[in-house]
Each structure stands twice: as C-alpha cells, then as structure tokens.
Amino acid sequence: MRFSLVVPAYNEARYLPRLLDSVDAALSRHRGGPSAVEVIVADNASTDDTGVLAAERGCRVVRVEKRAIAAARNGGARAAAGEIVCFVDADMRLHPATFDRIDDVLAGGRVVAGATGVRPERWSLGFAATWALLIPLVVATRMDTGVVFCRRADFESIGGYDETLLFAEDVDLLLRLRRLGRTRGQRLTRMRGAKAIASVRKFDEHGEWHYFALVLRVAVSWLGLGRGAREIAERYWYRPNR
C-alpha cells in the first residue's frame, strides 16, 4: 500500500459523493494502480448517512466519537496502512494527477511534507479579497491547504495532530513536520500541478466577507477579549448548518 487518503467527515453525505468521484478519477490515472491507494473515511460522529455512503463506495470507515477534526484525522491515520498519509476535507475534490504528483515530490527525499494547494469552485469579490489576504502568508511559510501529505513514519514520529486544537490543527502539524524536516535537510513544499478544488460553502453560509470578521474575532479572543476561541470554533466549525 503506497497511499492512505484520510477523509474526516461530519454529516457530509451531501458532499462526500463528489469527492469520491474525484478520487476514483485520480485512481484511474495513478501509475501505481488503484490498489496502491486506500481511502479511509473517519466518520466523526455523524448523524446522517455519511458512514453508510462511504462503505457503499468501498471506503474503509472508521468511527471517531470525539467531536474534533484533529481527532478524526488521527483516527483515520491510525487505521492507515500506506507509506504516505494524505488528508483532505470531505467537501473538496481531488485533481486527477494528485497521487502521481505527490509521488514525484516525495521521491527525491528533499521534501518532508506539503500540500497540493487549492483553487475555488467559484470566484466572487469577497472570496478574491480573502484569497489576497491569505496568499502572502501561504507563500512566505510554504504552508498550504488542499491535500496535505507526509510519510506515515514521520506523522507517527511527531504524534500526529494535536487533539487539543479545535482549529488550525493542520497549520500546527505542518509546523512540526517542518521542524522535523530541518533536522534532516528537508523542507515543506507547496506542490504544483494538482490543486484540489475547494468548496466555498462557508461563504455561502456566512457571507462573502465573513472571513475578515472571523480573523478579527479570533485575534481578539487571543487577547483575552470577546468570545473565547473555543466558542468561536464551535459556532463556525462544529455547529454547521448541516
């Protein structure tokens, strides 16, 4: 087994089929063949048909009761058999060349981990402004989103995702992988040529300009003012309209 693709999912019966369709397309193109990739859906205490749907599509389903995305990612990773673990959100879609490109990037041994990056499923003025806000930070740190990947041995050596974090757990993971890589002369990478397609459902739900207010609320919470970070996280990520 070369790859384990872990999909954390809470009530994602609406979006999961289109992700799995894109996974099937990527598997059909993968030079290692479909048998080189396992798909693990970490069902994070869903109350809809997420787990049933995933099983019907041939995925391995791991039930994770702790309602935290870091816990869901770790639960899926613990079941992984692949040399390389990849993580993607259930509302995204994979590029057909995803697995081949990750293989190419890791083959040289100079990269410890990385992400594919994303492109949005649609553009709007508010989303473009949000993109412009984030891209300089992404370029400066080489930490991106999309399909996040690393070697399973490295993931296990740093202890996986920090389950005390309700959000930004992916940033924390990449920071720790970058520190590990530096001890071996390796780096993080923003992979080119296989960007995932990102959902903009948060913008549909909260408004085109909501991200700026979210960043401000999080910053204020870190100063000990306003709502706490946990309350913000629960309202935005853990009590979604689905």
Tags for this entry?
10 helices; Spore Coat Polysaccharide Biosynthesis Protein SpsA, Chain A; single chain; seven-stranded mixed sheet; 9 strands; alpha/beta; globular; about 240 residues; two-stranded parallel ribbon
Give me the strand/helix succession: EHEHEHEHEEHEHHEEHHH
Examine the coordinates and then state which fold CATH places here, giving the name of the CATH topology.
Answer: Spore Coat Polysaccharide Biosynthesis Protein SpsA, Chain A
Helix content: 40-55%
Assigned CATH architecture: Alpha-Beta Complex
The total beta strand count reads 9
For the record, give the distance between the C-alpha atoms at the N and C termini, rounded to a whole number. 34 Å
Q: Which sequence of strands runs across the widest sheet?
A: 3-2-1-4-7-5-8
**Computed structural class:** alpha/beta
The CATH H-level superfamily is Spore Coat Polysaccharide Biosynthesis Protein SpsA, Chain A
Mean pLDDT across all residues, rounded?
93
CATH class: Alpha Beta
Give the amount of beta strand, in percent. 15-25%
Q: Specify the number of helices.
A: 10
How many domains? The number is 1
Low-confidence stretches: none
Q: Measured on Cα atoms, how large is the radius of gyration?
A: 17 Å
Instruction: Please outline the major beta sheet.
Output: 7 strands, mixed
Molecular shape: globular
What does this structure look like?
By secondary structure, this protein is of the alpha/beta class. The protein has ten helices and nine strands. The protein has one domain (3-203): Spore Coat Polysaccharide Biosynthesis Protein SpsA, Chain A (Alpha-Beta Complex), CATH 3.90.550.10. The strands form two sheets. A seven-stranded mixed beta sheet has the order 3-2-1-4-7-5-8, sandwiched between helices. The relative contact order is 0.16. The mean pLDDT is 93.
